[in-house]
Amino acid sequence: MTDLIAISGVRHAYRTKAGPLPVLDGLELSVPEGRFCAVVGPSGCGKSTLTRLIAGLMKPDQGEVRLEGRRVTSPRRTVGMAFQNPVLLEWRSILDNVILPLEIVAPRMPRAERVARAEELLDMVGLAGFEGKRPSELSGGMRQRASLCRALVHRPSVLIMDEPFGALDNFTREDLWQTMRDLRARERFTCVLITHDLRESVFLGDQVVVLSGRPARTQYVLDVDLPEDRTIDILYDRRAGDMLHLLRDQIRIAQGRDDPPAHTGSDLLPGSAAQGLTTPGAARDAGGPGGAPDGPARKTAPDGATRGAAR
Amino acid sequence: MIRKVAVPVAALALFVALWELLVWANGWPDYVMASPSDLPQSYARFWGLFLTGAWQTLWRTVAGLALAVLFGLLLGMIMGFSRTARDGLYPLLVGFNAIPKATLVPVLALLFIGQHDFNTVMMAFLISFFPIAVSVGIGLSTLEPEYRDILRSLGASRFTIFRKIALPKTLPEFFGALKVAVTLAFIGTNLVEIVSPHGRGLGALFLSGQTNSNYPLMFAVLIALAVLGIALYYAVVALEKVFAGWAERPQG
Ligand SMILES: Nc1ncnc2c1ncn2[C@@H]1O[C@H](COP(=O)(O)OP(=O)(O)O)[C@@H](O)[C@H]1O
Ligand SMILES: [Mg+2]
């Protein structure tokens, strides 16, 4: 299977009044076709910047972003995007909001066909019957569902989501995770999900990428070795618990906290979960002082991180 | 619905009654202050002049406002999309807006001698484009980037993004400004009509009332202006309901 998304050696800095602000430095990411990649990292580390690079809304200063084997230089119609703010257009009905991308991507598609496609999706996310409503008449969770439908209506090969469930309450959020899982089972797309919720990343992700603090590099990659048809209960399973602990430790490292982690990786990672660990970032760190950029992780990287690489 | 009509009508009746009472109680003759009961005669006598005057005032106001909308939208778009343009144009605009427009009457009259219609439309335009330009500029420049990105990430052109998202999204601000602009344009038209010798429109009718010491006629013109102003304002409100009605939140 080829990597649908391949990012290598990406560096990027914003030009600000106070001089260049390096945001990404040494970002590596590869997502095989059809896989779900969850990205976590400290706030302000450059996650949204990463989504904009993948979507072709910006070009990196250095390195390359490839989508479907081709280098990304400008936006592509095979991408769908969803944000924390559902950004529905208040002057359009829910149905017409969902149809919007088709007006750009398939201007000659007959209206009936567009409507049929939109209704199919709205039905899948449980919004059947709400087609004619205005966005302001819907709850936050329902708006986010509509936003997901809009992101998927033109059958993109990549869905990019930037903290889409971040503003929702816990139970609504868990409902949406399940909706997301069901959508994936029905539609084929590769997914990049930015989140600050570790449970979300483990529930939805096939892999979880931990970014370091700014400037972000790929600090850690966790392969989530759980069955495809997950239920919320799986988060209370020991394997998921171990992964959550491990991710928590990685986040602590990414934040550059010096206080020692409450758990050491070794007693928390019995066989099964540890098998799936790969960590390119850690591998580079382990390579000694050979030019790897200084990240906060180097000082405090615990056994857990390097051990995964050694396997 | 009944309340919506009954309340303003009652307020109007009360206002007219108080006016009549005030004039009657003070025993003012009609060359000091006309009373509402003097007005019907004026309307009856000069009805033809009122109709032509109102028409002239109306079309010149609307023409000036239409120019203001076109120019204001254009300027607003330029300021909304380019920071440099915004920084450069803003002080100019504010300065221009600060000039008392009465001073422009002689300037315009000298620039375009004898072009009374043109001068009037120009004044209505000059006085009213500012709020439109500013509100459209601010509306566009404060558009959240995500709104742009949902279409930009599909490779949509700037124009498509403007047409499908930025423009409709700024319509509520635009109509807010248009309500201010329509009143300003109306004032601009009347200003020129009243100040110019040989003017036309309701303003000229007012002037002739003044030169002939026909005070009831002057008051009748003022009332006619108020009615026309209200009609123009509510025409904009009706347009707003059609094009930006979605922005109205149901009141709970
Ligand atoms: N357009 C921009 N210009 C300058 N700085 C920016 C811009 N966008 C984001 N930044 C800065 O870059 C850093 C990373 O931003 P972002 O990618 O949004 O982080 P995250 O999504 O991980 O919170 C932040 O410190 C932010 O303030
Ligand atoms: Mg962000």
Topology:
The complex is a heterodimer of chains A (311) and B (252).
Chain A lengths: L2 E14 L2 E14 L3 E5 L6 H8 L7 E6 L2 E2 L7 E5 L10 H12 L5 H14 L15 H13 L5 E5 L7 H17 L3 E5 L3 H7 L2 E5 L6 E6 L14 H17 L10 H4 L2 H5 L1 E2 L1 H7 L9 H5 L2 H8 L1
Parallel strand pairs in A: 3-8, 3-9, 6-7, 7-8
Antiparallel strand pairs in A: 1-2, 1-4, 4-5, 9-10, 10-11
Helix pairs in contact in A: 2-3, 2-4, 6-7, 10-12
Chain B lengths: L1 H25 L12 H43 L1 H16 L5 H8 L4 H26 L3 H8 L5 H38 L5 H11 L3 H30 L8
Helix pairs in contact in B: 2-3, 2-5, 2-7, 2-8, 2-9, 3-5, 4-5, 5-7, 6-7, 7-8, 7-9, 8-9
Adenosine-5'-diphosphate (ADP) binds next to strand 1, strand 2 and helix 1 of chain A.
What does the model show?
Chain B: Keywords: Cell membrane, Membrane, Transmembrane, Transmembrane helix, Transport. Chain B: The chain crosses the membrane at residues 58-78, 90-114, 120-143, 174-195, 215-239. Chain B: Its main location: membrane. Chain B: It is found in: Cell membrane. Chain B: It holds the Pfam family BPD_transp_1. Chain A: Residues 256-311 are annotated as: Disordered. The complex is a heterodimer of chains A (311) and B (252). By secondary structure, chain A is an alpha/beta fold. Chain A has a domain at 3-78 and 156-230: P-loop containing nucleotide triphosphate hydrolases (Rossmann fold), CATH 3.40.50. Chain A contains twelve helices and eleven strands. Chain A has a seven-stranded mixed β-sheet with strand order 6-7-8-3-9-10-11, sandwiched between helices. A four-stranded antiparallel β-sheet of chain A has the order 2-1-4-5, with helices on one face. In chain A, a hairpin with a 2-residue loop joins strand 4 (62-67) and strand 5. Chain A starts with a strand and ends with a helix. By secondary structure, chain B is mainly α. In chain B, helix 2 crosses helix 8, helix 6 crosses helix 7 (158-195) and helix 7 runs parallel beside helix 8 (201-211). Chain B has helices at residues 2-26, 39-81, 83-98, 104-111, 116-141, 145-152, 158-195, 201-211, 215-244. Chain B contains nine helices and no strands. Chain B has a single domain (42-245), classed as Orthogonal Bundle (MetI-like fold), CATH 1.10.3720.10. In chain B, 35% of the residues are buried. Chain B starts with a helix and ends in an 8-residue tail after the last helix. Chains A and B meet through strand 6 and helix 2 of A and helix 6 and helix 7 of B. Adenosine-5'-diphosphate binds next to strand 1, strand 2 and helix 1 of chain A.
